[in-house]
## 1
Amino acid sequence: MKKAMNTLPWRALPVLLCAVFSATAGAAAFQNWEQDAAGIGVAHAGSAAIADSAAGLYYNPAGLTRLDGVQFSAGFTGLRPVVEFNDRGSSGPGLGAGDGGDAGRWLAAPNASASWHLGSDLALGIGVTRPFALDLDYDADWLGRVQAQRSEIRTVNINPAIAYRVSDRVALGFGVNYQTIDLDFSRAGQRLKGDDGSWGWNAGVLFTLSPAMRVGLSYRSAIEHKLDARVDGSAARATVKLPETAILSVWQQVSDRWEAMGDLSYTRWNTLKHVDFIERGSGVLLASEPFSSGNSWRLAWGAAYRVSDAFKFKFGLAWERSPIGNNGRTARLPDSNSLRLSFGGQWLLGALGRLDAGYSYLLMRDARIAQIRDANLLRGKYENGMHIVGVQYSLGF
C-alpha cells in the first residue's frame, strides 16, 4: 500500500496537467508541428519528453542523451489544408466573381536527423526541418482578389545541437539554428517576394523522475528575418519575426503495454502584427501585409498500446487555440481554433530499424472574416480543416 501511495501522484501527473490547462489550449497560424512524423499518431503529445529517436532534438535537444551509439531518422509529412470561403455580403469596386474555390494545397514537410553518443554523458546531433509553411492559392478572379490571390511561405531550419547528462535524473541540451525563409505573396495588381537566412537558438532540459516517467521542458527562440525583397520589381526590404515557442511535456509508462503522454505549448505570435515592404533608398512604404496575430496555446494528450512485441498502436488528440481572432482574420491567414484527432502505428523491424506512420485530421471552427482593403470589403465565413499524413524511419548503429 505504501508503494502504491508513493507512485500514485507521478502516475496522475499527465491527467492533472490536462485538467489544469484544458481551458487555455492552442496552436497554429502557419506553424508546422510535424517535425517528427512518428509523433503524428499521438498528436505530438509528449514531444519534449519521449526522446526515442534523433528527430526528437527539434522538440528537446536534451533527449539526445538517451540515444545510444549513432542514430538516424528521416521522415516525410504531407499536409492538405481545406480552405473554402462563403460570401456573406462582400462589396467594393475591385470585387471579382466566385468564392475562390478550395484555396488549400498540399504542403510537403520532410525532416532528417542524426545523433552521436560520445562517452557516457555527452551527445551531439543535427536536424533539418521545415518549421513554418503556408501555401494558399485562390482562383485568380475571385471575390477577394484585392485581399489575396497566392500566399506562400517556405522555411528550412538546420539545427546542430549538443546535450549533456548532468546526473541520472537531469540532462541539458542546447542548439543553434540557421533558418532560411522564402515569401511569395500576390493579389490583384501586386506581387511581393522576399528571402533571407537568419540565426536563432533552442534549449531544453529532460528530467527522468523514474524509469517509467520523464518530464521535458524546452524553448525555441524567435528568429527575425530581414528580407531582401521586391515589390512588383522594385527593390525593397521587410522584417518578419517568426515566433518563439515553449513546450512542457510528460511521458509515462503506465503498464507493460500502455504509455501515456501530454503536451502544453505556448507560441508568442504577437511579434508578427504586420509586414511592411519599404523601398530601398527612398524609404517609401510600397506595401503592407496585415497579420494581427495574438499568442497561442496548444494542449495535447496521447497514448500508445503495445499490441505485440513488433507493433504499437497510437492515438491522441490536441486542442489548438488559433492566434488569429475574428477582428484580425485575413484571406491569407483565415485560421481558427481546432481539435486534432490522430491515430497511427509503430513497427519494429529488428536490425532494420523502426517505422512509424500516422494520420491526423483537424476539425476547425467556422471562421468569420470582414477584411477591408482599398475600399473593398471581403465579408463571409471560412470552412476550414486539414488532413495530415506522415511516415518516419529510424535506425540505430
Note: Helices lie at 2-21.
## 2
Amino acid sequence: MGDVLSSGPDRPPWRPPRRLITAAAAVALSAALVVGIVAVSGSDEKTPAAPLNSSSPSPSGSAFPDGPDAITRAGQTPGLVITGLPLPRNATLIKRDRRAYEGPSTVVLRRSDGSLGRHGAVVTYPVPRPQGGRPVHVGSVSGRALEREITWPVGGSYARVRGDLPQSELIAVAAAVGVVSGRPEVDPPPGLSVTATGTSRPSSIHEARYSSRETGEADELSGGLTFTGVARCGGLEDQLYATRVQTAGTVHGKPAVVTSAFGGNGALAWEPVPGVVAYIGYSGAQLDEGAVAALRRLAARARLLSPEQWQATGPTTSDQTNDFGTPG
C-alpha cells in the first residue's frame, strides 16, 4: 500500500512544534505494532476476516449468546463455541497442516441409516503394506484382513477400508475402488453411497479452550480443560472405526458418538453438515456416564461460527501435522 499523502492549497510552509512531532511519531509506532500483531495471527480460510456481528461479541466482551449455527459453505471449516461462556483471550486456535494434501486421501461411504462412525466405511489411499492379518481375495488380488478392516494392493501401492460393516461388504467396497491421479475413487456397491471425499489429515482444526470450572461442569469433568473442535477430513471417521465408539443420542438432531480418538479423556462428536466433524472433549477426569452427560449438556449449548466470525475471535495459528487418521 502506498503512502497516503495530500497536497492542499498553496500556503506558507508550516513547521509543527517539536512536541507535536514527537507525539505523531509515537502514534505511528503504535499503529505499526498493531499491524504487525494482526499479520502474525494469519488466516485459515480464503475469505477475509470480519468483525463479529451484534449477536457474536468479541472474546473480551460478554458471553457468546445462543443462536443458530452459521451456514457452512462447501469446503469451509467453521468454528465451535459454547454459548453462555466468554472466550478468554488466546483461547481459540487454528492447527494448520500445510502438507495435508500431500498425504493420503479418503472416501467416506455410508448406508442410508448411517451416521458419523456408524453403518459405514472409510477408504484410505495410499497406506503402508500390511504386516499382519489373514489372506482374503479382493477381486483378482490378495489382501489382508483384520477385524473391521481390509488392506490390499491397488494403483501401485496399498489401500485400506475400515468400517463396521460385515466383512463381505467391506470386501465389496474394496473391489469397487480405483485410483485416478493418485487418489481413490469408489463406485459404491448397492446399499452404500459416498458422503465425503478429501484428505485423510485435516488441513486445519479449529479449537476453542475453556476451563472446565468455568463451564459449570467441574463436578463431572474436574477442574481441567474443556475444548471444542471442528475439522473436515476422512481420517477422523477412520479413527472412529479403528477405536470403536459408543452412541450418545443426538446433538441438534444429529447422531453423536463418544470416543477417546481426539485426545484428552474423551469427546462427544457429531457431524453438523456432511464432511464436517464437530466435537467437545475434556481432560482431567475419568470418562464415565457422568462425564458423557456433562458433554451432552455442553454440546446442547454449542454453536457453529462462520470462518469470518471465527477469525474475529483472534485465533492463534500453529503449523503442525494433524495426525488424525494417519495410516497404521
Note: Helices lie at 18-41, 167-175, 212-215, 218-221, 234-243, 289-300, 307-312.
## 3
Amino acid sequence: GRLVVLSGEAGAGKTALSEAFASRLDEDLTVLRSACEDLSIPDPLGPLYDLAREAQWEPPRAIEDRELHRLPLFSEALEVFEAKGPCLLVIEDLHWADDATLDFVRFLGRRIANTHILLLITARTDRSEGQ
C-alpha cells in the first residue's frame, strides 16, 4: 500500500495525469474514483460515498448522524476496498474536502501499508477558484 499526492495549480493537468496513469494499469486491478466538490457546505464524506458506489458497497446512510462512530465505518471501508484485490483509489480535489473526508484520508494513509491499495490524491497548491 502506498499514498501518492499529485499537487499543482488549477489546470496543471493533475486529473489528466491520474487518468493516464489509471488507464495504463493492469486490467485485473480495480480502479475506484471519487472527488471532493466545491460546495458552500460540503456533504460529509462525499468521496467515501463515491468510492462505496463504485465498489458496490452500501455504507450506513447515517454517516451524517453524530452518533455514528467514524472509525468502525472507516475500518469497514478499508476491508471492502482491500477485498477488491489490488486496488487504486482516486480522490480528486482534496483541497475542497470536508473535515470528515480529511479524517478518512488520514485513516487510510496510516493503514494501507500492508495492503495492495494505492491511494492517489489530487489537490491544488494555489488558492484560485474553478476554471
Note: The chain has one domain: 2-124.
